[in-house]
Amino acid sequence: MLNLFKIAMRNLLRYKRRTLLTLGLIALGVVFVALFVAVTGSFKAMMIGQITDSFVGHMQIHRKGYLSSIETLPLTMNLKPNAARKVESLLQKTAGIEAVSPRIKFSGMFSNFVETSNVRLNGVFPEKEMAAMPLFVSRIKAGSANLNRGEILIPELLARGMKVKVGDAVVIIATNQDGSVNGKQFTVGGIIESATGPGGRDGYIHIEDAREVLRMDEMEISEIALRLKDFNRLPSVYADLEKTLSGEKNKMGQPAFEVHTWEKLSPFYNIARMIDIMTFFIKLMLIAIVLISIMNVMIMAVYERVREIGTMAAIGTLPGKILSLFVVEGFGLGLVGAAGGSLVSCAVIYIVNLSKITFNFGQQKGMLLSAAISPVELLILSGIVIIVSILASLQPAFKASRMDPIEALGHI
Amino acid sequence: MHMIMGEGLSKTYQTGEVAVQALKGLYFSIEKGAFVSFVGPSGSGKTTLLNLIGCLDRPTQGRLLVADMEVSEFTRKDAAMFRGKNIGFIFQGFNLIPVLTAYENVEYPLIMVQSVAAAERKKRVTALLEAVGMIDRQHQQPDQLSGGQKQRVAIARALVTHPVLVLADEPTANLDHDTAYGILRLMKKIQKDFQTTFVFSTHDTRIIDEAEIIYRIEDGVLKNENMKGGAHVESI
Question: Disulfide check for A224: which of A4, A61, B113, B233 has CB 3.0–4.6 Å away?
Answer without folding.
Answer: A61
